[in-house]
Design goal:
Blueprint (H helix, E strand, L loop, with lengths): L1 H8 L10 E6 L3 E7 L5 H5 L4 H13 L6 E6 L1
Parallel strand pairs: 2-3
Antiparallel strand pairs: 1-2
Family: Belongs to the KhpA RNA-binding protein family.
Subcellular location: Cytoplasm
GO cellular component, one term: cytoplasm
């Protein structure tokens, strides 16, 4: 899942080397923290959060076969 998130985000940003995805597993959920360069935060979030919502939709659809809830936080 980390590879999927970074594959989606890297073409969107100006500093693809600074894209970092970390995973935190808990008992009933998995949280992915996406960290990008400060200048790229707006590009990842998009106008009115549309790009962030689209990224979350793709990630949630890809993980639909797991029992855990998946969350994506953009830092």
């Amino acid at each position: 899942m980390k590879a999927l998130i970074s594959t989606i985000v890297k073409p969107l940003v100006d500093y693809p080397d600074e894209v970092e995805v970390t995973e935190k597993d808990e008992s009933n959920k998995t949280v992915y923290h996406l960290t990008v360069h400060a200048d790229d935060v707006g590009k990842v979030i998009g106008k009115n959060g549309r790009i962030a919502k689209s990224i979350r939709t793709i990630v949630y659809a890809a993980s639909s076969d797991t029992k855990k809830r998946i969350y994506l936080d953009i830092m």
